[in-house]
Amino acid sequence: MVTAFAVACAGTRRAPDPYLSDAHFRRAALVASLVNTANGYSQLRISHYDTGDAEDWSRLPEWNPRVEGVRAGELDTPEGAKAEAPLGAGARPVAIDAAALDGDEASLVALGEEAFFRYPVQTSLSAETATVSRDTFARYGFWIDEKRGAGGLVRAETANGDRIFAYTCATCHSAYRGGKLVIGVGNDLLNLGRLAVDAAASPDSIAAARWLDWGPGRVDVSTSEGLEPVRIADVRPTRWLTHLHADATVAVRDRTALAIRLETLIVTSHHQLVRPPRIIALGLAAYLASLASELPTVPPQTEVELHGANVFHENCASCHVPPAFTGAPVPLHVVGTNSYIGLSPDRGTGTYRVPSLRGVATRGPLLHDASLPGLDAMFDPARTTSTYEGGRLGPGAVSGHPYGLRLREAERLALTAYLQTL
Ligand code: HEC
Ligand code: HEC
Fold this sequence. Notes:
The chain has helices spanning 18-21, 23-33, 40-48, 98-101, 105-118, 127-130, 134-139, 169-172, 192-199, 205-214, 255-269, 278-291, 303-315, 332-335, 375-378, 409-419, and strands at residues 67-69, 122-124, 144-145, 149-150, 153-157, 163-167, 174-177, 180-183, 218-219, 230-231, 243-244, 250-251, 327-331, 351-354. With 422 residues, the protein is of the alpha+beta class. It folds into two domains: 18-294, no CATH class; 303-419, Cytochrome c-like domain (Cytochrome Bc1 Complex, Chain D, domain 2, Orthogonal Bundle), CATH 1.10.760.10. The strands form six sheets. Strands 1-5-6-2 form a four-stranded antiparallel beta sheet. The chain has a two-stranded antiparallel sheet with strand order 3-4. The protein has a two-stranded antiparallel ribbon with strand order 7-8. The two termini are 17 Å apart.
């Protein structure tokens, strides 16, 4: 079993990371992380990431503007929360402290946590359509938390002093589970496609159909056409992954590869006009790695769970290899789920990544396209029949991943009981 990268304990100090200072090191790490150098995702990065030429993204200005989290209470005012409202006294850029730059792990993780909730990852002109009231806000699936604010939405100051709304990592990668805001889990209610349609004065009908097709919990963060929505990832198991993205576009040997993935996400979501300070990308990578510690390890205890563990070891563990319950990417024709994303010239690799099953019971919708609502549907033998009605994307068969579908009833129930413990 390959663990992606180790997590340092609080209080440890590493040598300052060469990712922060060494362009050759970064370029080599980027190239090594790209699984299929021919796809659009890889080509764009190969052309711009620490190339040393005029098109090098390193030449872009660093952006760490003054921001302020939108407060839940703003949604209760008669006019709702407005992007152009003046910034309050608490507005400031993500704080970059010297200890984090110096390699102090605890400071780096703290910086990453702050950035997860405050760094403006993607500016949004449509958010104001949602910030009219708590009801409208919730209708588009934004979470509301008295302490963490409104949907991870921030007000950011632009270079010319205007204010705009922007989404943070937390907008997409946090959601309520059992009455509690769980950080890192994909926001299965977030419906940015619906919001885009409602915010457009007169959306062209083809674009509108595409956006509405996303549905809640799915976003296209990879292409400009919006034709490739995938499930918003559960980033809690990131520490253990050897590959990122449903289609295993990025191999993560170490934290640098993850930091580069985040840095380049921010560059592309800002239309290649600005880049984040690298310490923010590194802090985010360190923080994401720390989230795995929030996943409880409860060993299977009841007879049913222990039986399920055996079923799992016989049928599943070759791909979902314990203790991380992930493994080498699987060719599309083997796993047999919808191959559209896996064949995409923009991002595909001809494989799907094996998701870690740690935390799977609280993950929300399953499979790369979020086509199934949860574990019961996943192992329902009826799901591959044409009369199936339990899929999230509409009636009809949800085919592929046939593993576990031929088990006897008692084994199947034991298996799902065991999966709840992971
Ligand atoms: C607009 C919603 C959105 C925002 C904002 C967003 N993400 Fe994501 N993120 C996604 C989606 C969708 C995926 C799944 C992509 C895929 O599988 O191809 C994803 C995937 C990831 C992955 C890969 C996880 C995996 O299992 O493969 C990581 C890590 C990640 N995001 C971290 C972040 C961080 C950190 C931020 C903030 C800097 C962020 N994301 C901002 C939607 C978002
Ligand atoms: C041949 C390798 C392989 C085997 C065997 C296998 N899986 Fe998977 N599993 C995958 C891949 C690949 C995916 C992702 C498919 C996709 O997203 O389209 C997946 C997805 C899943 C998911 C959805 C997780 C998520 O986050 O969406 C669950 C749950 C799961 N597998 C459980 C099991 C169980 C339980 C077994 C045994 C009964 C099993 N798998 C056997 C490769 C395998």
